[in-house]
Amino acid sequence: SKPISMDQLTDALRRWLGAADVIASGVEPQRDQGMHGAIDDIRERYSALRSIMGAPEVDALVSLYETESAAALDGIADAVERRDAPQLEAAAHSLKSASLNLGASRVVSSCEVLVLRARANALDRIVASELVPPLREQVREACEMLRALRATAPFDVPRGFFERSIDIYIP
Questions:
Q1: Which of 4, 56, 90, 162 is the most buried (most CB within 10 A)?
Q2: How far is Cα 41 from Cα 94, in angstroms, rounded to an integer?
Q3: Mean pLDDT, to the nearest integer, of 56-62?
Q4: 97 vs 121: CA distance, rounded Å
Q5: Buried residues in 43-64 as b, exposed as e (16+ CB within 10 A)
Q6: Rounded CA gap, 113 and 89, in Å?
C-alpha cells in the first residue's frame, strides 16, 4: 500500500526470482543517475582518497585504473565475442570493483548489468551492440574526469610536514 522505490523492487525481484529472471523482466540493477551525479561521485571519492592516502598514492591508483580498465574492456569485448559467460563475469566484476573504488558509478552500474547477464548466460547481440560501446564511453569519461581532477588538485603538503620542528632565524 505504500510507495516502493525501483531499488527496493529490484532487490525483491532478485531474492524471489533470481538474477536470470530479473534480467528477463527488464529491470536493471541500478538506474543511471546521469552525468552530473557521476561527476560528483568521482569528485567526492577522489577528494576522500587524497585526504586519506595522499596525492602520490591516488595518482598511482588513477594511473593503474586507466591501464587496468583498458585491459578489462578488452577482456569484456573478447568474452562477448566468444560468448564466454565466465570470462565476461570475471572481467566485468573486476572493472566494477576498480570503478567502485574511484567513484565511477556509471561504470559500476553498467558492469552490474553485464555480470547479471553473464550469470544468466544471456549473451546476445544486445550485449555486444547496446551494452559494451556505452561502457567504453563511460570508462573514457571516468578516466578523463580523474585526469582533470589530478591536474587541478591543490598542492599537497607532505605528511608530517607540520609536525616537524622548524627553527627559523629572523635577524
A1: 90
A2: 19
A3: 92
A4: 21
A5: eebbeebbeeeebeebeebbee
A6: 10
Q: What is the pLDDT of residues 90-132, one digit of tens each?
A: 999 999 999 999 999 999 999 999 999 999 988 887 777 888 9
State the chain's maximal CA–CA distance in angstroms.
Answer: 79
Q: For residue 102, count other CB atoms closer than 10 A to its CB.
A: 24
Q: Calculate the CA 135 to chain-centre distance.
A: 10
How large a percentage of the chain has pLDDT more than 90?
49
Cα 158 to its chain centre, rounded Å, is 29
C-alpha span between 127 and 118 (Å, rounded):
10
pLDDT of residue 140: 95
Amino acid identity of residue 8, one-letter, is Q
Cα–Cα distance measured from residue 116 to residue 74, given in angstroms and rounded to the nearest whole number = 19
Contact 114, 138 (CB under 8 A): no
pTM: 0.69
Amino acid found at 100 = L
| Cα–Cα distance for residue pair 86/4, rounded to 1 Å | 34
Would you say residue 27 has pLDDT above 70? no
